[in-house]
Amino acid sequence: MQGRTWGLRLLLLLGLGLESQEALPPPCESQIYCHGELLRQVQMARLYQDDKQFVDMPLSSAPDQVLRHFHELAQAYNLSIPLQELQVFVQEHFWAVGQELQPWTPEDWRDSPQFLQKILDPKLRAWAGQLHQLWKKLGKKVKPEVFSHPEQFSLIYSRHPFIVPSGRFVEFYYWYGNVPNGARVYYLQRSQPPLLTLMMDCYVAHTNDTTFLRDHIETLASELDFWTKNRSISVSSGGKSYSLNRYEVPYGGPRPESYSKDAELAATLPEGNREALLAELKAGAESGWDFSSRWLVGGRNPSSLSSIRTSKLVPVDLNAFLCQVEGLMSNFYSRLGNDSEAAKYRNLRAERMAALKDVLWDEDKGAWFDYDLENEKKNLEFYPSNFAPLWAGCFSDPDDVDKALKYLEDSRILTYQYGIPTSLQKTGQQWDFPNAWAPLQDLVIRGLAKSPSAKAQEVAFQLAQNWIRTNFDVYSKKSAMYEKYDISNGGQPGGGGEYEVQEGFDWTNGVALMLLDRYGDRLSSGAQTTFLAPYCLAAALLLSLLPQ
């Protein structure tokens, strides 16, 4: 229990602003990492295959010195700096990516945690042991110089160590008060799905640490206030008006980590439409689904990313997460003896439950769907996010589980042998067919597993079996875990989107270990059978790392 407690507390400390109640910093003003001529010239010159590489490189001297030298260089060439000169400039003024981090292994990490003994298949047990070893590779700690000279780094300092996803993602994601996308200054303009309160629930359930809850309950409330004040939208249905939430980033400009791609895409539109496109791209990144046909539906050209309209859709998963958060906040305040705040959040949850039913539920299909604000209709395409209310426990009719199960069958999702596809649309975007992602497997599997229906529970197990075999088979061939998988032809590393598929990979490892822990006495490493995070996903990741 000591290891579980330590790991969950660390998780919450990262999310709760590093044991502080400091206000969220303003959007990044760096003229190197966030905007400005230096950033534009380097990124548009495509010095690196991945734009993120440059904005993750630390400065070798103070920003004002770097900017002064850059302006001198730019003036010398009348703003048209030759490629070779630009390369030399970057080499002289920046360090390689990752210089601000050092390896870290949790102090109470153990080589053979007890949960491994629950896995009966010897091949899967050995594989789970190898996955457990990966946490040491993914563990990082920020060097002291980031604290003493923060202006020279895009990385935001944390005195607490953490787990990184790996690959191009050498920072932790989603943290700090009103919670930016990740621990880089250029992420400050956007958030991620609001799961911090759900992480607190995991921690309190394992520790009964009411003092920690009391100390940080207002920080949890501030995150909900952020979504209420900045991401709310009124939707009418059946003569009633409901307040729901969406992803929306009120800042234009290219994303620094994808600068050249955003700028080139914007250049295909009339000048008056470019800033709106860039803001919609950031909203898509805020959703975590960057990018998907979910955000293209109803656009001028649904097959082109230039049609992205994230803020014009009310997402099922976002509102299911918030519904669950409101229920937890009511429970938390009741536990702390604050009946008025408990009632407030209980009423908010009831209102959102009604909105999920009246606005997003489709009785004929038997599932929930994103709502298109401009066209005033649901997007009836398949996405695993359509099952988020089951995962969140935010539905009132027990028959909805059977209806959702029939929807899975009618959509022929259960015929996919290697995992649940992210969509049935093949757009070339990474959050579409044929890719499958670990958090979305968790969303559907645990949503069904919570049901008292024996059939739903068995479908959940079969989905878990399919996903574990895909992960195991690819690992057997590649000796690596991946952020996403292509399930169209036997299971292989995924593709598409803005960058090459990344190895690592923390949420894939976390879901695999969670499923091995839950179903270890039944799972098999044998041939595929044809059949089909979320909040504790992050906690499960840490739990699997620690002794029990």
Strand order of the largest sheet: 1-2-3
Q: So how many helices?
A: 19
CA distance, first residue to last residue: 6 Å
Structural class: mainly alpha
Principal-axes shape call: globular
Number of strands: 13
Mean pLDDT rating = 91
Commentary on this structure:
This protein is mainly alpha-helical and 548 residues long. Among the domains are: 37-93, no CATH class; 109-138 and 412-548, no CATH class. The protein contains 19 helices and 13 strands. Strands 1-2-3 form a 3-stranded antiparallel β-sheet. A hairpin with a 2-residue loop joins strand 4 and strand 5 (240-245). Helix 16 runs antiparallel to helix 17. The chain is globular.
Which descriptors apply to this entry?
single chain; 548 residues; mainly alpha; three-stranded antiparallel β-sheet; disordered C terminus
Q: How would the blueprint of this fold be written?
A:
Layout: H1 2-15, H2 37-44, H3 51-55, H4 63-76, H5 83-93, E1 101-103, H6 122-138, E2 139-142, H7 144-148, E3 162-163, H8 196-207, H9 210-230, E4 232-237, E5 240-245, H10 259-266, H11 271-287, E6 313-314, H12 316-335, H13 339-360, E7 361-362, E8 367-368, E9 371-372, E10 377-378, H14 388-392, H15 399-410, E11 435-437, H16 438-449, H17 454-478, E12 484-486, E13 492-493, H18 506-519, H19 534-545
Antiparallel strand pairs: 1-2, 2-3, 4-5, 6-9, 7-8, 9-10, 11-12, 12-13
